[in-house]
Write a structure and sequence with these properties.
Number of strands: 0
Helix content: over 70%
Shape: rod-shaped
Distance between the termini: 26 Å
Radius of gyration: 20 Å
Largest sheet: none
Number of domains: 1
Strand content: under 5%
Order of helices and strands: HH
């Protein structure tokens, strides 16, 4: 199997970035639903709602950290492809 061309590599990286942005969008929706549910649970029990809120915020924070790191890494790879093409000219 031949190595992908720079255009194919660029298209793949852009697809991964778009996928991570979609994941990030759904992570935001999930966090919003989780926070609302945890705050609504405050009326039933304050201890478990606090635990639920911490879990939701922890998952949200870690998820954002991972997706933003992936996007940053892939943008760096896109820049490297562009630099290599400019250098080859």
């Amino acid at each position: 199997m031949a190595a992908p061309t720079p255009d194919e590599r660029r298209a793949l990286l852009n697809a991964w970035i778009a996928g991570s942005r979609r994941t990030d969008y759904w992570l935001n929706i999930g966090a919003l639903v989780g926070v609302v549910a945890a705050l609504a649970a405050r009326f039933v029990t304050s201890t478990w709602s606090t635990v639920a809120l911490l879990i939701v915020l922890g998952v949200y924070g870690i998820g954002r950290w991972i997706t933003s790191s992936h996007i940053s890494d892939w943008k760096t790879k896109l820049e490297a492809i562009d630099r290599a093409e400019r250098k080859a000219r």
